[in-house]
Design brief:
By secondary structure, this protein is α/β, with parallel strands linked by helices. It has 25 helices and 8 strands. The chain is 49% helix and 7% strand. The strands form 2 sheets. Strands 2-3-4-1-5 form a 5-stranded parallel beta sheet, with helices on both faces. The protein has a 3-stranded mixed beta sheet with strand order 7-6-8, with no helix packed on it.
Length: 547
Amino acid sequence: MPRYTACVAEYLNDHPTYADPIGRLHLLKEVGEHIQACRPPQVVGVFGDWGSGKTSFMRSLQLYLAGVHSRPDALAITTKQNRSQAEEKEFNGIKRILDAENSCKGYPVIWFEAWLYQAEDVPIVALLHEIRRQFSPGSQFWEMLTVSGRTALEASLLMLDPLAKAIEKVAPMASLLMHAVGSVAKASEKVERDRFEVPLSSDQIRVQLNQAVKTILGNFKKESYNPAYFTVRGLDQPEDIPMPRLTIIIDDLDRCEPAMAIRLLEGLKIFLNIEHCVFVLGVNPRRLTDHIANLYRNEAKAAASDGDKYTFAARDYLDKIIGAHFTLGVAGNTSKLIEDHMPTVVLDLAGTKKPVTEELKQVLLNHRCLPPNPRRIKAFLATLARFNDRRFSKNYDPGLLISFAYLNHFHPEIIRKMQYYQGFDAEFIDWTSRKNETGSQPDELNAIMFDGVLPHPEFFSGQPEKGRSKYPDPIYENVLHVHSLFREWEKANTESYIAWKVYVDERQKPAAPVAKVAQSAEILETENLAASAANRESFFNEYFLLG
């Protein structure tokens, strides 16, 4: 296997994980217990930025409630042989969730990937079909039941078909989103008026759906369970659920086209707002609010400057639908995530092989130099793995390698400018070290340095610009997290860097001082840099991953 493939094989995927490297089991139990104890109907929101681990969290919630997981049979609790290191972590995570206090194995939970159904005119119908599929022969819930239990469940599922067809006719008339900004209460009144004008009203459909779901849930009781299913997986057979409810987890709603997201939300409120359903929506609230606000804005033909009014209306709309909010905070402690996914890196330092994995890991653990986002951290570590077996001069520095891996991954535009513009690297280093005490940066830097949004207050010589906080949100991409590593490296005033600047600067002058150039060339030769110094656009060329 090629060196790069070998060292990143387990790092490039973005699959959800049960390993819980961020330590959210306490929040998982809180959300799970809320779902078990709440009075349906209810819509629960799990809020978090893209890449914050929402899908992993909700897959873990599905396991906590239902005792079923999305991993292949190789990860079943009874499997003990031939597990890879990654599979062992998944196995331990699954077991930790199943052993958690108040976990309720056998609890009926449906998983719905919203963005797979973007082309659906009536996405609530796709949801009903998915409910039927996940209870049908071959599903884990089907396997839980005895033969008689399966027969009864199959008969119950037949009730969903005519209701799905009725919803397809009624849905276009039942819309909570008005053609102009107004209260949700007025929109609801419109729905109540419209429903009397159709043969089968939304209210009648709701009553029949409630009966259908109640009948389906009635099949999941102690006498209907197949003991062998639970025994082979090392699980206790579930007891009867005191307050039966169907939990439907909807993922990636915020990635859908705005109109589709609205149609699904309206369908939940109009048709599935029933006494046996709890919905869990995993969303980025900023994105979903923007979707709804833009729809309001477009309907009203409003200018972008009117954004605040429509954003507030969008928040009101979401508050009407989502009754309980649980927020996934930033990954404050990322050490376990880094430990779990750190790739092996061995460098060729002027012909000598040197393992540098541990010293690179220590830089990451000792500095808050990565965005607090699990997906972005894993993707960064995959980029870091690309330095494996790379040849470096004596110029190598672990903090510098981390910094340039960061720029290569998150801000390749900076690397391109270092490659193209002579001396840009020096200005960039000076900028990160705040050499310009006036607080302003050169125009070229201003154009690429994230519109002047700086990551920490010490970067400002005085008060930040009007309307801009000196504490920007750390999840935003316009925050430079590695500034301290560049500053730390620059403070060392490495002789080779100073010599290189002299060598390049003096050679560009019409009458280059021969003695000064020769002296700096001698230093560069000592540092094993002279051979390419004359043709370098940047002192940091060997750190660039861009071709």
